[in-house]
């Protein structure tokens, strides 16, 4: 998909740059003829058609990618629900009512957590959290939204998409530097909280960071900006990200 988008962007730049050619012809002849005007008009029309085609192609590629991502998310949730229904059905048949209650409460808690994520306020970040399980098996995310926080309602000093990109970059930094081959998937806990006129995003990794990795420099690279500060804990893999609010 990104190859198509990059190709379309390059094609648009080349098409716009080619407008210099008819202008150079006019300059070289130092006189404007009717055929020059016709050539310039046709050239502009051609550039417009190429630009429109490349934009539509890029949009189609992006849309198809998002549709495939949504399908993967739905299939993953369907698989989870089928597993839950089979477990509940088994407890009912075996008349294990105590385990049945615990299973229903676990499903309820998961639904409540997913509902809070869906109301986080940044669609790209919500989609990232919802689809992460379909693209990464090494790390599981445990998201905690304190007081049903909606990031879109906070007067943040940075754009919402910038915040979304930084959080996603931080998650992939954990994936890149996590110790592999430990058996069960490790858990990355992420908490969002409105804390003393700042947004606090807490990262805590229940796993091991590779000793040979440049962890600190990667964190600084992923979380940087005028209105962003980072406090790293002594425990490797734990840090707090603070984003200033304008009011």
From TrEMBL:
Domain SpoOB alpha-helical: 69-120
GO molecular function: phosphorelay sensor kinase activity
Name of the featured protein: SpoOB alpha-helical domain-containing protein
Record InterPro entries: Sig_transdc_His_kin_SpoOB, SPOB_a
Annotated TM spans: 12-29, 35-55
Lineage: Bacteria, Bacillati, Bacillota, Bacilli, Bacillales
Pfam families for the chain: SPOB_a (PF14689)
Keywords: Kinase, Membrane, Phosphoprotein, Transferase, Transmembrane, Transmembrane helix
Domain of life the protein comes from: Bacteria
Organism of derivation: Paenibacillus selenitireducens
Keyword Transferase attributed: yes
